[in-house]
Amino acid sequence: MPSITIPTQFGPLTLWEEDGAIVRLDWDGNGTDETELLVEAARQLRAYDAGELKAFDLPLQVAGSDFQRAVCEQMSAIPFGETVTYGDIAKALGAPAQAIGSACGGNPIPVIIPCHRVMGAKGLTGFSGKGGVETKVALLRHEGAGGFLI
Question: CATH 1.10.10.10 in the chain, residues?
């Protein structure tokens, strides 16, 4: 599967493409492919990293259940610099907040699908990307998001 790695302030991020869509983002990969989509995705990720991009415009394909895709769709709708709670997404989807937390943790395309913008009812929670909660805080600070507890 074609992939490309981009150095960012959040660590090296590797984007993976399959069938004309971005399907995964990992930390610490070593992708070196240059498909047209991966070059564009890398350009957008660099612009985000530089503070010049607030919304990604890329074809994404989320693997998993319909529920996983629905949660990722809800996360994708969270505006740059804002946060919502697991409970907010749970209410929108009519599902338990704990199930939302599990689906957020299973997000295959973090950063682009901004699971870092989802908080617990009492504030800051974990993050499944490399660096854990410290990376989540760095992403939120990068976006100027307020309203979370450290």
Answer: 66-148
